[in-house]
């Protein structure tokens, strides 16, 4: 009995040890209890910090967002502008490549076949092989000039057809259209063409300040219709000896890129309200400078390669105020031989008359003071009688 009661009691010596143990257990429990609270404070603090930063950014949006948007818009506009420029350039290059491919194909077909009717014109008809195409530049108001040319150096009717079929010499008056569709001016040209059949109508609106554009369109139209060795432009107040012209051109038949005419280099006129004023005079250097060498505009000839070049590059060839300057500028930088043929710019009698008597019949005659024969309607007959090669001149030339 005494042993059982004593065994149920805790010995006094264990009391301090038990107390110390509970103390440490309490401390351990207390520390674990407070750790989450500290962790929560830390999390709450961390949670508030991004909100504060976001709030600071949002407060800053009011002052910086608008300039940033304007800058982005300007960048987009610039990118769009560059894209449009690039697209325009691509379209232009494709047009040039298409024209070049078409011209090259025609030249290859011509070389392979050797046939005069192998090439095809734009209207689907066979493109005839000829020696030269002569375009006589004329205007709506120049009916009397055209009649004076028909009565002198330009064959008419069956003779004109025979000249084309037997000698390969094509002659046409070149003219575009008026600004008003189917106007009385256009109808008058249609009636005249129905009578004489000697016009080449161009897709061009006539105007004195549009001569450079008309020249480009003439060469492009002519080379699309005829496969010629040479293409000639002449004004309707100039006298021409067709036989001498043909024999002169024949000397250069073997050369690929020739530009034939009376070469000159006149002054660049910067003064306004004067004839032949050049608005883009500053491009030619200091005031008082001269133009580069180019053929005078009354008459000149170019070989097939150069006419093809004009046709292919027509959209990007720059037009100056003066047509002869424009033509000369298109050949700058190309491997072109300039032929200074002085017989293409003889004066009217007595100049061309003396030369004819000396055995040197001129290709063309006109007055420099008038940029053509002065009062050509009345005087061209006199020039033809005194300086002409004779009605049979062209028929005796071997081409």
What does this structure look like?
This protein is an alpha/beta fold and 399 residues long. The protein has 11 helices and 9 strands. Strand 2, helix 5 and strand 3 (199-205) form a beta-alpha-beta unit. Helix 2 (15-113) packs antiparallel against helix 8 (304-313), helix 6 packs across helix 8 and helix 6 (211-225) packs across helix 9 (323-330).
Which features does this protein show?
alpha/beta, seven-stranded mixed sheet, 399 residues, two-stranded antiparallel sheet, 11 helices, disordered N terminus
Number of helices: 11
Order of the strands making up the biggest sheet? 3-2-1-4-7-6-8
Percent helix, as a range, is 40-55%
- Overall spatial form: elongated
Count all strands and give the number.
Answer: 9
Termini, distance in Å?
Answer: 160 Å
Secondary-structure element order, N to C: HHEHHEHEHEEHEEHHEHEH
Overall SS class:
alpha/beta
Largest beta-sheet characterization:
7 strands, mixed
Beta fraction: 15-25%
What value does the Rg take, in angstroms? 45 Å
What oligomeric assembly is this protein in?
A: single chain
* Uncertain regions spanning at least 5 consecutive residues: 1-9, 32-48, 61-65, 110-118
Mean of pLDDT: 81
Keywords: Glycosyltransferase, Golgi apparatus, Manganese, Membrane, Signal-anchor, Transferase, Transmembrane, Transmembrane helix
Domain DUF4094: 11-104
Protein name: Hexosyltransferase
Transmembrane segments: 12-34
